[in-house]
């Protein structure tokens, strides 16, 4: 491990960080990622102007991410193993995916479309004011599948590679991509570095997440075929494999039409089967949960086998 941890320590700390996340959930006050977002906004306002915005974007990314990631790594090195698990907890968004999405399903199932629209607007950037039940179920399912990588497995992957500091670097980079990685006039040049760095960090974990969705699928062949056929047409090189395989795994037809800032966009198709319904939100959450448990089990098994070989 680049982090200097043994496989046994990694497996134990992975389980500890996930357990903390499931028990405590998202920090309600003073969440580090919220504070980081405020810092990133100040850096962006200071640097995203004038000439040389590509270079300014690289500098802004480095100023926002590298000192904090280095500080996280130093804290883990200086304060003991428990710090790795605590830092992993702050970087994970596992329970928050459940807490933000299952209430949408509950609102839809109870017929409270207004509440479902309000809750969905909190997790996606598309317009929800006039969204139908199928639109809202689709938005929630897509968010769960994509964030199964971004908020969960990608974080676990980089924790295995580089401990708490690695998990922190990944989540900070992912947050900057969400803030700056737009092809708008404001961010096309300045946000280029944030988008491309996030693409690079996500390349391997996204494909492992997609593979996990295939292995755990209700419709395994469909998940594989949708991944191979549909992912190349999706705008994001990493969201494509994750969402196409996940949609295929659930037997759902996702993607397609969505409205952003009052403009209807026709996105490439994802998956195949019927339209999403309220109950499919819980199915998507269970697939994400099973993926996390699968890789925790793989880490534990690898630690046991390594220990047995060296006994």
Describe the structure.
This protein has 311 residues and is mainly alpha-helical. It has one domain. It is built from eleven helices and two strands; from the N terminus they run ααααααααααββα. It has helices at residues 7-24, 32-47, 53-79, 82-91, 94-109, 113-121, 133-180, 192-215, 220-230, 239-250, 278-309, and strands spanning 253-260, 263-271. It has a two-stranded antiparallel ribbon. Strand 1 and strand 2 form a beta hairpin. Helix 7 (133-180) packs across helix 8. The mean pLDDT is 94.
Layout of SSEs?
Layout: H1 7-24, H2 32-47, H3 53-79, H4 82-91, H5 94-109, H6 113-121, H7 133-180, H8 192-215, H9 220-230, H10 239-250, E1 253-260, E2 263-271, H11 278-309
Keywords: Cell membrane, Cobalamin biosynthesis, Membrane, Transmembrane, Transmembrane helix
Pfam families: CobD_Cbib
GO molecular function: ABC-type vitamin B12 transporter activity; threonine-phosphate decarboxylase activity
Shape: globular
- Largest pleated sheet: 2 strands, antiparallel
Helix residue percentage: over 70%
Task: Indicate the proportion of strand residues.
Answer: 5-15%
Order of helices and strands: HHHHHHHHHHEEH
Features:
311 residues; 11 helices; two-stranded antiparallel sheet; globular; 72% helix; 5% strand; ABC-type vitamin B12 transporter activity
In brief:
By secondary structure, the chain is mainly alpha-helical. It is built from eleven helices and two strands.
